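Module 6 notes. Inverse folding takes a fixed backbone as the condition and produces residue identities as the prediction. Think of it as a translation problem where the source language is geometry and the target language is the twenty amino acids. Below is one complete input and output pair. Work through it position by position during the lab.
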């Protein structure tokens, strides 16, 4: 097998000799590429190798950003004051970097006013144009009409 590692002269050795070299150094013999001809083995401290791999993966995981989605709920006949109140919340959420999911919930026979709900969501999108952009236009799903707005990049 081909032997590589720190403090070792790379070369091709029989398996018994490679194990002997690893035990002399107090390290482990790890097969890296079993399909190569001859197979490649590395002399390393296996516990330290596993620890460093976990550390790298943890670091990569911490660098990924979590996307938070905040939800605003309206009805087809939401008042102007309530609309403005929720609009201010949406602005705050977008400034913090969270996505905003706005939906109009139709109760009972209020489903007849679908266009009122769509107008409300489009009005919200127009008001939030400065802070975010529409990711998904208003779409009716059952008794809910939903729209998603994402924050603009700084």
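Target side of the pair, the amino acids:
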């Amino acid at each position: 097998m081909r032997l590589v590692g720190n403090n070792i002269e790379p070369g091709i050795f029989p398996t018994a000799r490679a194990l002997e070299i690893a035990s002399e150094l107090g390290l482990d013999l790890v097969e890296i590429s079993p399909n190569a001809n001859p197979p490649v083995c590395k002399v390393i401290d296996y516990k330290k190798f596993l620890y460093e791999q976990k550390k790298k993966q943890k670091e990569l995981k911490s660098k990924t950003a979590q996307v938070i989605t905040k939800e605003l709920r309206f009805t087809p006949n939401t008042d102007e004051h309530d609309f403005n109140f929720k609009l201010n919340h949406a602005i705050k959420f977008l400034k913090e970097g969270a996505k905003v999911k706005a939906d109009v919930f139709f109760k009972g026979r209020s489903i007849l006013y679908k266009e009122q709900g769509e107008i409300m969501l489009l009005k919200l999108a127009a008001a939030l144009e400065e802070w975010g952009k529409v990711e998904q236009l208003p779409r009716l799903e059952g008794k809910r009409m939903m729209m998603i707005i994402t924050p603009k990049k700084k």
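Reference fact for the lab report: The two ends are 54 Å apart (CA to CA).
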